[in-house]
Design a protein that fits this description.
There is one protein chain. The protein is of the alpha/beta class. The chain folds into 2 domains: 200 residues, Glycogen Phosphorylase B (Rossmann fold, 3-Layer(aba) Sandwich); 165 residues, Rossmann fold. Helix content is 49%, strand content 16%. The chain contains 16 helices and 13 strands. A 7-stranded parallel β-sheet has the order 3-2-1-4-5-6-7, sandwiched between helices. Strands 8-9-10 form a 3-stranded parallel β-sheet, sandwiched between helices. Strand 11, helix 12 and strand 12 form a beta-alpha-beta unit. Helix 1 crosses helix 16, helix 9 runs parallel beside helix 10 and helix 9 crosses helix 14. The longest helix is centred in the first third of the chain and has 23 residues. The protein is globular and about 65 Å long. The relative contact order is 0.11. The mean pLDDT is 92.
Length: 371
């Protein structure tokens, strides 16, 4: 099959962007003709060994850059992407995901009579319920308009897929339309086979640094523990400065690593005692998978999505409950044998349930069946 992916990716590839790129790459390995149109190149070449076309975008140096980038995107789509599709009449599918990519996918699919596939990760109704006033404060203006266009695009999509049962169910409620299924992200466990590192007195958080992730809970919980471990944070985001100030205020030793390459990231996780992932909203939530792949336990908030994906292989605390999180952290710090046992159980679970082969096998069947 000949398949075109549209990627509206930021500088660092993570989360949904990572899932889409790995899916494209695994399909390319099976001799499908894969073409990827990206916003930014950055990490893309490390993850995809196929035809990549990069549009580029201006950095947000001043107000109005976003408008300029949107105008440029329309120009690039008209001149470059549409020209490509006119010349390539044998494209079987256009694939997008979440907002701008989904809208572009459907618009071009309609124009060139090509079947479309979109992945749904989340939706405003679900986010509002999970995030309350934090989301309501942002859900306005252009952001709100973007979600309206996304919903319209999803309703016109030929094949609509979730990335978990929960994301599928939640988006069906929002759209009032049945989705065609769901495809879990995979993992390449060969990437996690490395030497055993000596454990440091540290716990790790992996993911974006933003309010939705509730990272402040980790700081507050650790500040209540006698002889606390160091907190390692892998990732970037708008919440970094407030978190640095919070670490100073609470006298919590924290090391903000920023975005790391996969090899360095894995070494940091393996040197850690366990991971803490207190997020209030995820369509899937990949960091706990990486913790378990590294044979360390992970503490998650007791959200339905984590219970679906990780069942009883992670430790749960009551969402937003600092005291409960403190108790869970304290328990793992005192019970190293339990941590080792849970790490081994987690690794076996991930090995059994998740792989890119399983993800791509299922996705191929969906594409070949056309549903």
């Amino acid at each position: 099959m000949k398949i075109v992916f549209f990627l509206e990716n930021p500088k660092h590839i993570a989360g949904g962007d990572y899932f889409i790129l790995r899916l494209a790459n695994e399909l390319a390995k099976r001799d499908h003709d894969i073409i990827v149109f990206t916003k930014n190149q950055y990490d893309v070449v490390k993850l995809v060994d196929t035809d990549i076309y990069t549009r580029g975008a201006l950095k947000r140096y001043f107000k109005g850059i976003g408008f300029i980038n949107r105008i440029y995107d329309k120009f690039y789509t008209k001149i470059c992407i549409e020209t490509f599709l006119k010349k390539n009449h044998d494209v079987n599918y256009l694939i997008g995901y979440l907002r701008d990519s989904a809208v572009k996918c459907v618009n071009l699919g309609e124009k060139f009579d090509i079947k479309t596939v979109n992945f749904v990760f989340e939706n405003p109704a679900w986010m509002k319920r999970d995030l309350s006033f934090r989301f309501e404060a942002e859900y306005k203006g252009r952001f709100k308009k973007s979600w309206r266009k996304t919903r319209e695009a999803y309703l016109k999509t030929d094949i609509l897929l979730g990335i978990s049962k929960t994301s599928k169910t939640e988006c069906e409620k929002w759209l009032k339309k049945d989705l065609n299924g769901y495809v879990y992200p995979g993992i390449d466990l060969k990437e996690f086979i490395s030497k055993n590192y000596k454990k440091n007195n540290q716990v790790v958080y992996l993911g974006r640094l933003n309010p939705y992730k509730n990272i402040d809970l980790i700081f507050n919980a650790i500040s209540k523990i006698k002889n606390p471990p160091k907190l390692i944070l892998i990732g970037e985001g708008e919440d970094k400065k407030p978190l640095v100030k919070l670490s100073e205020k609470l006298s919590v030793e924290a090391d903000f690593k920023g975005n790391l390459d996969d090899k360095t990231k894995i070494s940091v996780i393996k040197k850690s005692l366990f991971m803490v992932f207190p997020s209030s909203h995820e369509g899937f939530g990949m960091p706990p998978m990486e913790a378990l792949a590294c044979e360390i336990p992970c503490i998650c908030s007791d959200k339905l999505i984590f219970k679906e994906v990780y069942e009883d292989k992670v430790e749960y605390f009551k969402e937003n409950d600092v005291e409960d999180l403190k108790e869970k952290i304290g328990f793992l710090l005192k019970n190293t044998d339990y941590c080792k046992k849970r790490g081994k159980q987690g690794r076996k679970y991930i090995e059994k349930k998740f792989s890119w082969k399983k993800s791509v096998d299922k996705f191929e069947r969906i594409l070949k069946n056309g549903k």
